[in-house]
Amino acid sequence: MKSLKDILYGVRLSAVTGSTAKMVNAICFDSRAVGMDDVFVAIRGTQADGHEFIDKAISSGANTVVCEELPGNLVNEVTYVQVENTQSALAVMAANYYGNPSRNLKLVGVTGTNGKTTVSSLLYQLFKKAGFKVGLISTIKIMVDDQEHATRHTTPDALVINKHLAMMNEAGVEFCFMEVSSHGIAQKRTEGLYFAGAIFTNLSHDHLDYHKTFAEYRDTKKLLFDNLPKTAFALSNIDDKNGFVMLQNTRAKKHTYALKTYADFRAQILENQFSGQLLKIGENEFWTRLIGHFNAYNVLAIYAAAELLGLETLEILRLISELETVDGRFQYFISDKKITAIVDYAHTPDALKNVLITINALRTGNENVITVVGCGGDRDKSKRPVMGHIATELSTQVIFTSDNPRSEDPSKIIEDMEAGVEPQNTRKVLAIESREQAIKTACKMASELDIILIAGKGHETYQETKGTRVDFDDFKKVRDMLTELQK
Ligand SMILES: CC(=O)N[C@H]1[C@@H](OP(=O)(O)OP(=O)(O)OC[C@H]2O[C@@H](n3ccc(=O)[nH]c3=O)[C@H](O)[C@@H]2O)O[C@H](CO)[C@@H](O)[C@@H]1O[C@H](C)C(=O)N[C@@H](C)C(=O)N[C@H](CCC(=O)O)C(=O)O
Ligand SMILES: Nc1ncnc2c1ncn2[C@@H]1O[C@H](COP(=O)(O)OP(=O)(O)OP(=O)(O)O)[C@@H](O)[C@H]1O
Ligand SMILES: N[C@H](CCC[C@H](N)C(=O)O)C(=O)O
Ligand SMILES: [Mg+2]
């Protein structure tokens, strides 16, 4: 049990009815999970309004309610805490509940449309190799040093974040790298956290269903920088046209990185091939296994962050050359018949374009590029025709298929993608709803030296349709099928 008064420390209160001198068990924002003596936080969401479940939460045992609007009937013995924004209150309360664990380690947030998982996972790997105990909060997994925990979000809710940060404190973790998604910022999941630094990768088209306009999406990302403490560093990619925007209103110490323009941290690509690329930072040349122009940005970002966190230049470069690629990010397999299959998490127009440009640049002759791609259901519909357009412009053959259809009809999603295909490219397109069949067809179509790109689901090991998740792993599927076809 914890003291309610302590949990409310630093929460901006509008009014309190009842006593705060009481003990509470847990904090909960879902009435269906409330237990005896819990605090129920009522949140207005996208589907429901938590205020409607206050009675249910009380009947399940809540002794405290945190809300934006007081209910008509107040129950004796229950404490009602009124605040302006319950999501902000939840973030501060969650941090207090777990003893403000972000203050006991160096927490670095990574934001941007693409590259968050890559940059945070590589920083985790690099600091592990440097001998530290390290934490990671990412789309793929949460790591409490060597201990792996599953996650369903890129940036989990404030309770999950702080719970894991507290476990990291317990394990003696010194650095934690976490992805900060725009949904996470908009829903204040990260508000109670104390950041030692933040990194901006880039900004391009995504989530315009949720944020409505690009400006709103950009300004949401910017909030991570606006709220940094003075002691933190703010590291931004200024080759991106919004790179300086992120730094505009931050109190943190500003640093920039770029490949194309003058910046505090600069890199040059000297060579790029399938096995890796040769980069130059300052006077030092080094190899990295991560290929493609976009990965040069990711590598430069981790180099700069590692310097800002106090590691030695030569040690950083040595460790970068040892880094493994991240699961589902340009993960490839070459079959005995010399067909290359690449699985990549490109699920935005910019990512898909970057990956296909990288693949085309690595072609040495007339190899075909066969792309298998879909778009997620219940997500930004406006990116579908754009991705359809990019896939067909930059590939020899394209198979449109299902990603995670969620509640939508997969054939409608494919139609949305087809709407972006130029007339001269329609002959390149096949539509196969079943992802398994789509991958199988690509494998059958490929001949020696051809390249198959399977985009959109990367590391995901499931496919979500109408609320159910069925096991599905792009990399395993394509590897097994290519191996089978060779027999
Ligand atoms: C659109 C969105 O982000 N939704 C998130 C949001 O849910 P919501 O606003 O829809 O909640 P709601 O269903 O309207 O309910 C409102 C409140 O009433 C409560 N409630 C509801 C029903 C009930 O009986 N009792 C009750 O108390 C709910 O617990 C909630 O507190 O808050 C929930 C709790 O934190 C999240 O789990 C949920 O994520 C959904 C599942 C989701 O898919 N989110 C994705 C889009 C997301 O967040 N993605 C980003 C990454 C994106 C990227 O960068 O590419 C991420 O960080 O993962
Ligand atoms: N710096 C970058 N710039 C542009 N594209 C990138 C960059 N890094 C990675 N990508 C592309 O974007 C895809 C997703 O990368 P990653 O998973 O690192 O992004 P993310 O920001 O974590 O995505 P999410 O929002 O889903 O968490 C990669 O598979 C690759 O195709
Ligand atoms: N973080 C992203 C991941 C998209 C991955 C793609 N496979 C999909 O399911 O749409 C989102 O939730 O929008
Ligand atoms: Mg991610």
TrEMBL record:
A motif (Meso-diaminopimelate recognition motif) lies at residues 403-406. One of its GO terms (biological process) is cell wall organization. It is found in: Cytoplasm. Keywords: ATP-binding, Cell cycle, Cell division, Cell shape, Cell wall biogenesis/degradation, Cytoplasm, Ligase, Magnesium, Nucleotide-binding, Peptidoglycan synthesis. The modification N6-carboxylysine is found at K221. Its EC number is 6.3.2.13. Its main location: cytoplasm. GO terms for cellular component: cytoplasm. UDP-N-acetyl-alpha-D-muramoyl-L-alanyl-D-glutamate binds at S31, T154, T155, S181, Q187, R189. It is an enzyme of class 6 (ligase). The keyword Cell wall biogenesis/degradation applies. The keyword Heme does not apply. It catalyses: UDP-N-acetyl-alpha-D-muramoyl-L-alanyl-D-glutamate + meso-2,6-diaminopimelate + ATP = UDP-N-acetyl-alpha-D-muramoyl-L-alanyl-gamma-D-glutamyl-meso-2,6-diaminopimelate + ADP + phosphate + H(+). Meso-2,6-diaminopimelate binds at R379, D403, N404, P405, R406, G456, E460. InterPro entries: Mur-like_cat_sf (IPR036565), Mur_ligase_C (IPR004101), Mur_ligase_C_dom_sf (IPR036615), Mur_ligase_cen (IPR013221), Mur_ligase_N (IPR000713), MurE/MurF_N (IPR035911), UDP-N-AcMur-Glu-dNH2Pim_ligase (IPR005761). Catalyzes the addition of meso-diaminopimelic acid to the nucleotide precursor UDP-N-acetylmuramoyl-L-alanyl-D-glutamate (UMAG) in the biosynthesis of bacterial cell-wall peptidoglycan. Belongs to the MurCDEF family. MurE subfamily. This is UDP-N-acetylmuramoyl-L-alanyl-D-glutamate--2,6-diaminopimelate ligase. It comes from Zeaxanthinibacter enoshimensis.
